[in-house]
Amino acid sequence: MIDEAAYEALARDELAAWLARMGKGPSPLGRASKVLQAQVNRIVPEKVHAAVTAVIERLTRVIVAGSDLTTARPLEGASLSARETRVRARIGAYRAAAAAEGGVAGAGGFALALAEFPTLIATKIKLLFEIAALYGHDGAELSERFYILSIFQLAFSSADHRREVLAGMADWRSRAQPASLDAVDWRAFQQEYRDYIDLAKLAQMIPLIGAPVGAVVNYRLLDKLGETAIEAYRLRWFAAKSGA
C-alpha cells in the first residue's frame, strides 16, 4: 500500500528540482548546438523554412483539433500515485512503439526516415492527450490543448524558450487563454522543435547505423516528453491543492 502523503512529498521535491533545471540557462553544449543549428538555418532557403512551417502547422492543427483525440474521459477521484502509475505505463507503451518505428525507419533509408517525421509528432501529441486525461483534464477544452502544446514546447525547445513557455504556464487556471489556435506562433514552434531534434534525427538517415540510432533517438524523445508531462501536470495538481 502506497503512503500517499510520502508519495506527494517526493513528487513535490522532484517537481522543485525539475523547475530549477528548467530555469537554468543553456549549457555550453546547448549553446554550441544552437549556434550550429542557426548556421544551418541561414543556409536553408526561406521558401524551405516556409514550406516546413506550413506542413508542421497543418499537421499539428489537425492533430490537436482532431475529435479522435478526445475519446479518453478524464480520470476522476484517483490519487496522484494511482494516476502516475497509469501514466508511466502509457509512457512505456508509447516509448516502445516509437523505438520500434524509429528502428524500421532508420533501416529504410532517407525517404522512410523523412516520412516518419510527421508520424512521430502525431505519436507525441496522442501521448500527451492520454496523459492529460489520466491527470483528470479534458482534452476537448481549448485551454487544455494550449497546455498540451506548451508541454510539447517545454520538452523540445532551447533553454531560453523553455523559460518563456514555463512562465506562461504559471497560474494556468486564472490566466486568460487565446481564443483560437491562430494565436500560436507556428514559425517559432516548428523552428524550436526542428532545432532540438534535427541533429539527432539526421543521424537516423545514415546507412548502417540508421536503425539503432532511430530506435534510441525515438525512445529518448518519448521518454523526455513523458517525464516533462508528468512534471507539468504535477505543477497543476499541487497548484489546485493549494487553491492557486
Strand content: under 5%
Unreliable stretches (pLDDT < 50, length at least 5) are none
Written as H for each helix and E for each strand, in order along the chain, the element string is: HHHHHHHHH
Radius of gyration, Cα only, in angstroms? Answer: 18 Å
Task: Kindly describe this structure.
With 244 residues, the protein is mostly helical. 76% of the residues lie in helices and 0% in strands. It contains nine helices and no strands. It has helices at 4-22, 28-43, 46-65, 80-107, 109-134, 142-155, 159-169, 186-203, 210-242. The relative contact order is 0.16. The longest helix is centred in the last third of the chain and has 33 residues, at 210-242.
Topology of helices and strands:
Blueprint: H1 4-22, H2 28-43, H3 46-65, H4 80-107, H5 109-134, H6 142-155, H7 159-169, H8 186-203, H9 210-242
Short description:
By secondary structure, the chain is mainly alpha-helical. Helices cover 76% and strands 0% of the residues. It is globular and about 55 Å long.
